[in-house]
Amino acid sequence: MEKIVEQGLLYDFYGELLTEHQRRIYEDAVCHNLSLAEIAEEVGISRQGVHDLIKRCDHTLKSYEERLHLIQRFHQVRQKVQSINDLTEDTQMKPELLREQIRRLSGEILEAL
């Protein structure tokens, strides 16, 4: 996964668990694509301080995902929903087989939740 996409997902799922100060700086770096110098000037700390805080936030957010697996589950559920959508487009499948496949996938989704 591209680093910025991974950071965005981690922030979307776990950003509220950061302090307000961490959220502000991490959001400026990841979501608003501000440079370290711009963020440092805005919050009144050194570029190195901003860099270190972003690295700590990355580590913290990744550790949440390692323990909770919310992003992993999100991707699994999304894939199963796509499979259900694909099944509904299959005009060749017998209705009873279609229902069975959809029931199986929806059961897997419910287990993941």
**Overall geometry:** elongated
Looking at how many chains there are and whether they match, the oligomeric state comes to: single chain
- Sketch the topology as an H/E string, one letter per element: HHHHHH
CATH class bucket of the largest domain:
Mainly Alpha
What is the name of the CATH superfamily of the largest domain?
A: Winged helix-like DNA-binding domain superfamily/Winged helix DNA-binding domain
Tell me the structural class.
mainly alpha
Summed up, the domain count is 2
The CATH architecture category of the largest domain equals Orthogonal Bundle
Distance between the amino and carboxyl termini: 23 Å
Rg (CA only): 20 Å
Please bin the fraction of helical residues: over 70%
Number of strands: 0
Count of DSSP H/I helices: 6
Task: Tell me the layout of helices and strands.
Blueprint: H1 3-14, H2 20-30, H3 36-43, H4 47-68, H5 70-89, H6 95-112
Helix pairs in contact: 1-4, 2-4, 3-4, 5-6
Please characterize this protein's 3D structure.
The protein is elongated, with a radius of gyration of 20 Å. The longest helix is centred in the middle third of the chain and has 22 residues, at 47-68. The model has no long low-confidence stretch (mean pLDDT 93). The chain has 6 helices and no strands. The chain folds into 2 domains: 3-68, Arc Repressor Mutant, subunit A (Orthogonal Bundle), CATH 1.10.10.10; 72-112. The chain starts with a helix and ends with a helix. By secondary structure, it is an all-alpha fold.
